[in-house]
Amino acid sequence: MTDPQQEQEIAFAREKAKRTLPVALLVLLGLVAMYLPLPKRFVAVLPLVLAIVLTVRLLRFLSARGGKEKIWPVVTLVISGMLLSSLALQVVFYDSVHAYEECVAGAQTSIAEGDCAPLKDAGMIGLVVR
User: Fold this and answer.
1) Count of Cβ atoms closer than 10 Å to residue 110 Cβ
2) Mean of the per-residue pLDDT values for the chain?
3) Which of 21, 60, 78, 90 counts the most CB atoms within 10 A of its CB?
4) pLDDT category of residue 124 using cuts at 50, 70 and 90
5) What pLDDT is stored for residue 42 in this prediction?
6) pLDDT tens digits for 63-106?
7) Which of 5, 22, 20 is nearest to 69 (CA)?
8) d(CA 90, CA 98)
9) Does residue 125 carry a pLDDT above 70?
10) What is the largest CA-CA distance in the chain?
């Protein structure tokens, strides 16, 4: 027979895995959605917000445990927050970001892509890219 303590640890590990997997998949989905063209890119908000909500629930679940088990959920929160802040900046500077992306997408040579440099320097993009 197995020890009751060991059974509790196994049950805890299963529950933690069950709560962690959706968070990882949602962050990955949000990260992939960030590579979509600009108007479609805002779809990434939904999986990232869901990932944050599930990560907070996971941290509450882990509140009775040691600190090492909380490191990766905190990293997940930081990554999701950075991606959401990036989307927020793209909303604020939508016109200049959209114009730059269209210019680069239409450029077929590096000389034509160089003509997009004034658009990159316009607004907040120039501060972020440099």
Assistant:
1) 7
2) 84
3) 90
4) low
5) 92
6) 887 778 788 899 999 999 999 999 998 888 888 888 888 887 87
7) 20
8) 9
9) no
10) 73
Secondary structure in 3-state letters for the chain: CCCHHHHHHHHHHHHHHHHHHHHHHHHHHHHHHCCCCHHHHHHHHHHHHHHHHHHHHHHHHHHHCCCHHHHHHHHHHHHHHHHHHHHHHHHHCHHHHHHHHHHHHHCCCHHHHHCCHHHHHCCHHHHHHC
Token match 């890119």: residue? 41
* CA atoms lying within 13 Å on the CB side of residue 110: 0
Contact status, residue 41 vs residue 62, Cβ threshold 8 Å: no
**44 and 34 in contact (C-beta within 8 Å)?**
yes
Contact in structure between 19 and 58 (CB atoms under 8 Å): yes
Instruction: List the end-to-end C-alpha distance of the chain, in Å, as a whole number.
Output: 63
Percent of the residues in the chain that have a pLDDT greater than 90, as a whole number: 35
